[in-house]
Structure formats: structure tokens, C-alpha cells
Specification:
The complex is a heterotrimer of chains A (about 170), B (about 230) and C (about 575). Chain A is an all-alpha fold and about 170 residues long. Helices cover about 60% and strands about 0% of the residues of chain A. The longest helix of chain A has 25 residues. Chain C has 18 helices and 2 strands. Classes of the chains: A mainly alpha (about 170), B mainly alpha (about 230), C mainly alpha (about 575). Chains in contact: A-B, A-C, B-C. At the B-C interface, helix 1, helix 2 and helix 6 of B face strand 1, helix 1, helix 7, helix 8 and helix 9 of C.
Chain lengths: ~170, ~230, ~575
Amino acid sequence: MAHDAHAHADGDHGHHIIPMPVLLKTFGGLIFLTILTVLTATQLDLGAFNVPLALAIACGKATLVIMFFMGLKYDNRVNTLTLVLGILFVLIFISFTLFDTAFRGDIGNVDTIPQEDRTRMEETLQQRDPGRAGLATSPADSLALEQNPLEETPAPAEEPAPETTEPEAAH
Amino acid sequence: MASTTTTAAPAVEHGHGDGHAHHPRFQHHFVSMEQQFDSAKLGMWLFLITEILLFSGMFVAYTVYRVWHPEVFEVASEALNPFLGGLNTVVLLASSLTVALSIHFVQKDQIQKMNWMLLLTVLCAAIFMVVKYFEYTAKFEHGLYAGEAFHPHAGYEQFNIPYARQFFSIYFVMTGIHGVHVLIGMGMFTWLYTRGLRGHFSSEWYTPVELSGLYWHIVDLIWIFLFPLMYLI
Amino acid sequence: MATVMHTDAPAEAAAHHHPEHHHPEHHYLNHEKTIWSWLSTVDHKRIGIMYAISVAIFFLIAGVLALLVRMELLGPGETIMGPDAYNQVFTLHAVMMVFLFIIPAVPGFLGNFALPIQIGAKDVAFPRLNLASWYIFMAGAALAVIAIGVGQVDTGWTFYTPYSSDGSNSVFFVTLAVFVAGFASIFTGINFIVTIHKMRAPGMTWNRLPLFVWALYATSIVQVLATPVIGITMVLLFLEKFLGIGIFDPALGGDPILFQHFFWFYSHPAVYIMILPAFGIISELVTVFSRQNIQGYTFIALSSVAIAFLGFLVWGHHMFVSGQSAVSSIIFSLITYLIGIPTGIKVLNWVSTMYKGSVWLQTPMLYALSFLFLFTIGGLTGVMVGVLAVDVHLHDTYFIVAHFHYVMMGGTVIALLGGFHYWWPKITGKMYNETLGKIAAILIFIGFNITFFTQFVLGSRGMPRRYYDYLPEFTALHQISTVGSWILALGLFMVLFYMIHSMFRGKKAPANPWGAATLEWTHCTSPPDPHNFHHTPIVTHGPYDYHALEHLYEGDGVGDGATVEAAPGQKH
């Protein structure tokens, strides 16, 4: 029956004996990285970079374990493929969930006034007071100006956020 | 069209001719011990990625809540003792080494050394669980539970903030499920040890040792990520 | 005989002295006869049959529940049950159909039976794990039954929080059932992947694998990667319910939409666990009954893998109106369109396989044609509801109900029925009644369309799903749909009865009644030997190489002990 074409790519029949010094060095490396991660996390304040650094060290440790303790360096490539596939899908799970949770609420600022009405209001405003039209950045400001043209408008330029999210929400 | 030749089937002949075929552990739906071992190992790797994906759900929950409430997570993680966490990291790494060594020794037919390594692995796992026990009880005393029982008191009032409960829930669930895996591993290595004593393993056949070893390294790997995420940052 | 060589398999030959010379009737069904020999079997063929019987029972129960749902909707207001009972009935219908029928059906039954033989193996790589997976599956089923006994399960099959975390305790048993049954699915997946990688017969290269095997390979990858996530989701749901961990429950600061991400990370790929093996069956049927080599073998094989991969990137399209971010809705919607490409490639290749072929309209082919028609409707409406703006309108209406029934029932169940008829002679050694088979296939096709096409119309007019009551203007369409469900049921019961009849009174089946070229037909008796092959086959041609097959019919040894009549469909 089939021995996979790639089953013995390394020519060592999957029974490679990992030498003792390699195992001990790996262990030494792991302990070193553990101390490093504790030190960098507790003694070193890198601000936002502490998290990526700790994760990078953890990935380094994981690589050591996988390559030498689990022997993937000497093993069939199909096992490596399996592991890579698993990790890939974990990353997909995390990143695609973050596409939602990190941007949650971006659909909340939906313009309640139809686009044509907005255009009309802006035009009206432009006719009445060309100098101040640029200040009306939100529909509410525009309405306020339209209804009470003589009153002071409440500081409209400070809140440009709804304007910027509008195109995304509307289209 | 090909005619009936025998030259086209060297793999099959090899499979039956290499003497391994008569090992008592040989299962007859395989062609060779080689194929049987490779299959078991690929099966184990596939099982390991299911383990990784099982934990991935909790890592996703961690990431989501950390992104939402980073300041809460930073405060809450101060409740955990990095020394005990670091100690457990070293203990687990040591147990990974002993497992790797047990495979090294069985491949060289040094069965007695393999047994010692298996026993050391069980011991390390036990130390890990004991440390974990003290960590858990210290949290429980101060009302740091997973879920609705969460009620920090006795010097831990500073953790009584919104979303700290989520941090402790994730901490207990992740380390709890990890702990269950450690217990299962302890059971497995105790069983392997007794089989090793009865002389079941040799360089010809040690599949259970190899597969349990792979499992144990994955348990170690999960902890390698849990430790910095929970205790350090 | 030119194309096939035999090698000695000493281990096997020592144990069995070519039994067919002594007992011509010796095969896997009768070589051991006790009930215990079935319950303790590690033979993949017997495990396949145990799966077949169990999923058939669940299909029957869940099908009766579906008839009750349709009966309740025969008129507005309360017809045969109140709102609470209705909620439970549709929930149980869905949970049983999804987790206890469709997901295990094709891999567990046809996959277990055919896969090892199709690649020329004596068994799957881990026979005991295979048996264990059946027991675990049955344990999951038992928990589901307990849940029915304990009381109200009315969350729908999606178990959305906070309803599931606040509701009745029997939800616990159902979610536990899903958790347990998930392990069965994982073990089957692991077994198949390893079997395909390591157990192929000499000469069975990757591009000689039958397409059913390729489809099961893709399915297994999805099973292994996705199922653990439903496991952890269910665990977190128990913990939410009993400890209040506050991950999913908004009252405790959790996020219910996060639950939906967790749930659909599994359950969307699970849709491909359901449909991919069906694609595999259709690939077999279309080529065998067109007597023509499959068009675009590589494309069909790799499109299965592509679908398996893309299937993981689109789960958010179930959540367009859940309140997830617009960014993710847009991303998920775009990737959803991409799924149409590999699926379209498959449909085009199947159709072009039939072009200029000599199409032989036996029952399995009728199902294959039904599939092409129904699945295309199901698939295209899937692209429609993947469009953000359209989905906002159609979400949670009968349009969605119709869409996924066209995919799951019109796709998977129709393909399963086709495969069931196709492999029936191999499984039982008996032929079914072809005339009744054709009548049933046509009844099912008609009944299905009457039942579910009306639901597209209902949905587009605004009839929401999961309601036991409706406005009077929907009455006529609901009644048409209910009548359709009776026709559909009639067809399915016909299949049940003539198949049982054929088991006892059917004509004896030849080894290769369809003139197929895959190993289970060319190298196996009907029903097969307990060890599948008397000699390990050596494969020298592709799975659909019918020209190579013609040499087999002239020679002496078409497999072992296989009495082969000239294949009826062979006359060109």
C-alpha cells in the first residue's frame, strides 16, 4: 500500500533520534526566554510594545518546543502542514472576529435625513449666509440654522465625527 | 496497457519483507509497522490541532475583551502572582524536557531511563497542579471567582471594577481547562509508566509514548502563551 | 486481463483461504451473525451500516416533526399546537436534522462504507476509533433524547444568548449533546484524513482518487478544524448559564454577538460539512451515468478544497443584522460572493460531463439531475442573501428558510438519496425496484419544489420564520407548501418501503451493475468480502477511465469472484 510520496522525504523513516545535547540546549533556550519575558514585562516599560514583545517571545518558545521537543524539524512534512493549517485558522478566527469587535458601532451614525433634503438645506443655508455655511457640518446644525437663522449656532465645528462616518454608513 | 509485472510493487514487498510485520502490535490492515506508526502520528497531529482550535475560542474571548477594556485587564492581572506563574512555566518546560528524553531513551532501548523520565514527568505535572491549587485558593479567599460569585474583598477591593469579572472568568476558564488537560496527561503518563515497567515498549514499538509526548508538548505550548497573557501583560 | 495486477497479501491469505471458492455467499454481512458481532465490529462497512440505521431513524423522527410544523401552518392561528409547542417542535426538527442527521449522514454512512474500498484499503486507519465515534455519536443522540424528555428546548438550533443562557435547563442537555456528537465528527474526520494520506493502494495517486474521496477529504479538514470551536462554545455556554461568567450575557457585561461569532465559526463551515460530501456523490453519479470521463477532474477536486477554505471566512454573513460592525459585514459579504466561484466551477463541470455523454437515466442519475437543478437554485439564492442590502430585507424570513432547505435538502439529502441508490447493490448485494425508484425520485422532486419554492415567495413578501401564526394573506401559499410536504413525505416513505422490500426480496446484484470504474465496483464482490479485497489492488488507471474498463469486461478476472455482466450502460 501507499507509502506517501513524501512520507520519507527526509529519509530517516520518522524515527529520527533527537540527540541529547539538542534537547538540553532547547531546554536551556526555553528557560532563558522565560526569564527574558518576565524581565521585559516587569522591568521594561515599552508602553504599547510590551504586549507584542511578550507574544513574540512566546512564539519563539513555541517554535523551540515544536521544532525540537516535538521533533517537527525531523518529521514528515504533512505533519508540519497540519500544524500550520491549524494555526492559520486560529489567526483567521481571531482576526475576523476583531473586524467586528474592534469596529463595533460604526454603523450607528446613520443619517436620518435623506441626501436630497440635506443638499437642499445646505443650498438654503448658502443663500442666506454664505459666510457661515461652511460651519454647518451636521444635519442638526443645518436644521438649527434653517429654523433660527438669527440665533448663535451651538459650536458646530467641534463635532465633525458624524460627517466623516456618513458616507460609509449611507452607502 | 501494462501487463502483469512484479517490478511495480516494491513498496508492498518491502512492507512484508522487513521483519516488522510480525511484531505483536502490528495491525493487519496496515502494510508495515512504518505505515502504522506514521498513520498514528498524523492522526495525533490532527487531534492536536483540534486542541489548539478548542483553546482558540478562549483566546478569541481574551483578545476581544482585552481590546475593549485594556486598562481593566492590566489592573486585574496584578491580582495574579507572576512568581508562581513563572515557577509553573519552568516546571512545565522541565516536564516537556523529560518527555522528550523518555522518547530519546526508548528509541535507544534504554527502558529503565525511559521509566525514570516518565515518572519525573508525572511528578512535574503534580507540582504544577499543587501550585495551581494554592493559586486558586488564594484567589477564592478574596472572592475572586469566575462568574456571578465574583466579589472581591479583604484587600482586593481595587478589583471591584466593571469588566474585571470578565478577566477572572477568562482566567479561570482557560487555566481550568488547561488544568484538566494536565490532569489527563498525568493519568496518561502514570499509565505509560506502569506499561513501561511491564516492558511493553521498545525501540521497535513505542507509539503510545510518542503520541502522549506530542499531547504533553501541546499542553506546554498552551501554557507558554497563557503565562505572559495572564500574568505579565 | 491487462490492467490489473494482484499481489499476495500473506497476512490475509493465511487467515482466509479465499473463501469464495468454498462459500460463494461469504461476505461482510454474513460472516458473523450475532448482534454483538455488529456492536463490537471494527469493519468500516458494518460501522457505515450502523450509522445508516441510526441516521435514518433520526431523519424519520425529524421528518415527522417537520410534517407537524407544516401541519400547524396549514391555516392562520392555532391549528394543531400552541406557540410554545411549535417553538419546541421546530427547534427539535432543526437540531436533529442538522446535528444527528445531515452532518453524520454522508461521511458516517456512505463515507465509511465506500472510502476505504475506493482507495483500495482494507479498512480505515483507526478502526477502533471509528467504532468509538459511532458510540460517541449515539451518546450524543441519547442526550438529545433526554433533553426532549426533560422539557422545553425552544431556542432554535442556533442557541443564541441570552435566550439560551437564561432559558430552560434542558437547553443544557441539547448543548451537551452537540458537544458530545462533535467528538464523533472530529474522530471521523481524523480517521478519513489519515486513511486518505496513508492507506492508499499502490498506484492510487492523488490524481487517481475518486472525486467522492476528494470531497470527503475536504469535508474532513473542515470537521477537524471547525468542530472543536463548537465544543468550546458549548462549554462557555454551560458556564455562562451555571456560573454567569459574563462573556456572552449582556446583563453581566458580556457580548451576545460574540456568541454568534463563536457559533457561526463552526456552523457556517458545518454547512460545507453537509454539502461537500454531496458534491462528491454527484461527481461520481454524473460521470458513471453519462459513461464519460469527468470533465475537469482537477478543478472539481481542488474546488472542494477551495470551498472548505473559503467556508471559514464567511461566517459573518449570518450576522448582517445582528449589530456587528459595518466593516466586517462588508468583508464577509465580499468573501461570500467568492464562494460562488468554486461552486460554479463544479456545476459547469458536471453539466459539461453530461454533454455528448450517453446519459443513462437510472434512479441515481435522476437524483443527480434533481440535485443540479435544486442546488443551483439554492446556491444562487445564497449569493442573493449574501448581498448586504438584500439580506437586510430578507433576513429571518421564509426566503432564508427556503434557501437553506434548497441547499441542505435539495442538495445534501437528494445527493444522499442518489448515493444511497447507487451504492445500494454494493452494500446489500440486492437490486432495488427501478420503476418504484424512478417514481419516488420524481415525487420527491415535485414535492420538494412545491414545499419550498412557495417559501421563497412567502419570504419575499415578508413572512417571518419561526412563527406559528401568520397574516391571512399568506394562507394560500402556506397551504400549497403544506400539501407539498405531504407529496415529499410520500416519496420518502416509498423509498423506505421498497428498499426494505429489496433487502429481502430484491434481485441479486452483480458486482458492477452500473459499469463504474472505481475499485469498489471493479475489484469487489457485491456485497464485499469482510476484508474488501482478496488481493490488494494495484491501480493503473484513473477512477473514470471507462476505456480502460472495457478491457476488464473481456478478461477473466474483474476483481475477485465478481460475476460481471456486460454493463447495461456500455453500449455507445
